[in-house]
Each structure stands twice: as structure tokens, then as C-alpha cells.
Design brief:
alpha/beta; Rossmann fold; about 25% strand; disordered N terminus; ATP binding; AAA+_ATPase
Length: about 250
């Protein structure tokens, strides 16, 4: 498999020789083992692999939520590994969006307040036109004053997607974003992520265990035992399921 170098300007996020080890000595566990991979701007990529393959660790390192033991990490063409905590906090606030399985909405705030919260914490005002477009696109116009407990799971996740997209980050990370949704709501969220990549030029990176969800992506990156195990371009459900079965059988 050909892996692009972090210096390539078409890449929104890139890792070179990324390694993550937990513990030391004989009990040390290597969750990522010399992983080099790039993610193009304006593309939707799914990361998949068997349990324990390192897919969540890779996403956490790419998103700067975890610190790699060694290797280089770039975001928007700039090296970000080695930044101190304050710089990483600013980077995540200004340049990275997150959509989690558990929604992570503030229960005491309305949908609208949840959407604008990251910008308010940064002391910034939202772009009114972009906010209005997102609200219309996500079908949230009649739900903005409702609190999370008054929304369905699909509506809560749409609020989380709007919150992630409003600051126009370099990259949006999804951690099992359809894991708590029924099939209809999950498909709706996946269409929104597709549109964000293909129409708005966002870079979307999603960890999932679901071949149906992965088939919504432009590309699937496969991991096994902390190492790259291949990729699928323009994935189909059957292709993804077969690839995961092969990786599992090889365990």
C-alpha cells in the first residue's frame, strides 16, 4: 500500500512512523507500531480493524487527544507532535471537530447553545450565515430551543455534528458516531458527514466497527495488531465485511 508523506500539501492530517506504547518493560503493550498514513483534504475516511487493532488509539493520536510515543504528526501541513498542553488545547478548539458516540451535549443548555458553545468558550462569534445554513441542512430549525432530553438520539447527534462543523475545522473526527443510533438516524448522520466532505471540503475521519457505516466513506483504512493492514477505495459493504473477516481469521 502506498502511503503519502506528511509533507504532502494535499493532506489535512498525516502520521509518519507513529508508535504508541503503553507501559514499560515486559508488560509494555504496543498499540500502534510504526504507522504512516495520510488523509486527504475534502475526503471521508473510515478506520477499521478487529478489536485491539489500534484503530481508536490511532484516531486519538491523530486528534491530539493522546500523545504518541514516537513519530511525526502534521495537521494542515504543520507539525503538531511535541506541542505543549496549552498549544494543543488551542489547536483542538480552533482546528479540530469531534462527533462522539455519546453525543456529549451539555444537558442544561439548549440545542442552539450547545452548537455555539465551543466558539463562545474561544471568545468568538459564530458566522451567522454559516450557522443558518447548518441549521437548515440539519433540520434543526424547530428544535434549537429544546434541551437534549427533549430531542431524539438522531436529533442530538445532528446537534453534535453542527457543533463540530460550525468553527470550520481542518478536520472532523467521528468516534463511532452512529453507534447509539437506529439505522435510519445513523444513515442520516452519515449522509451529513459525506456532504460535509464532498460539498464543504471538510476532512472527515471516522472510527467504526460497522461495515455499512464504513461503506459511506470514500476510503477505508484497515489496521491489525497496531499496524496498517491495507485500504479499500470506494468501499462496498461486502468488501468491508470480507476484509474484516480475513483480518479476524488471521488473528
Amino acid at each position: 500500500m502506498s502511503i503519502q508523506a506528511p509533507e504532502a500539501t494535499a493532506l489535512a492530517v498525516a502520521a509518519q512512523n507513529l508508535t504508541k506504547t503503553y507501559g514499560t518493560g515486559p508488560t509494555a503493550v504496543t498499540a500502534l507500531d510504526d504507522v504512516s498514513v495520510g488523509f486527504e483534504r475534502g475526503k471521508f475516511t473510515a478506520i477499521m480493524g478487529p478489536s485491539g487493532s489500534g484503530k481508536s488509539t490511532l484516531m486519538h493520536c491523530l486528534a491530539t487527544l493522546d500523545t504518541p510515543t514516537s513519530g511525526a504528526l502534521t495537521l494542515g501541513g504543520s507539525r503538531v507532535d511535541g506541542l505543549d498542553d496549552d498549544a494543543l488545547t488551542t489547536l483542538r478548539r480552533d482546528r479540530v471537530g469531534f462527533v462522539f458516540q455519546a453525543f456529549n451535549l451539555v444537558p442544561t443548555l439548549s440545542a442552539e447553545q450547545n452548537i455555539v458553545l465551543p466558539l463562545e468558550l474561544a471568545g468568538k462569534k459564530p458566522d451567522a450565515a454559516w450557522m443558518a445554513e447548518l441549521v437548515e441542512r440539519l433540520g434543526l430549525g424547530s428544535r434549537l430551543k429544546h434541551k437534549p432530553h427533549e430531542l431524539s438520539g438522531g436529533q442530538q447527534q445532528r446537534v453534535a455534528v453542527a457543533r463540530a462543523l460550525l468553527p470550520r475545522p481542518d478536520v472532523v473526527f467521528g468516534d463511532e458516531p452512529t453507534g447509539n443510533l437506529d439505522s435510519s438516524s445513523g444513515a442520516e448522520v452519515l449522509r451529513l458527514l459525506q456532504r460535509s466532505a464532498h460539498e464543504d471540503g471538510q476532512t472527515v475521519i471516522m472510527v467504526t466497527h460497522d461495515p455499512v457505516a464504513a461503506a459511506s466513506a470514500d476510503r477505508v483504512v484497515l489496521l491489525k495488531d497496531g499496524r496498517l493492514a491495507g485500504e479499500i477505495i470506494a468501499p462496498q459493504v461486502e468488501q468491508v465485511s470480507s476484509a474484516l473477516a480475513r483480518l479476524g481469521a488471521a488473528s
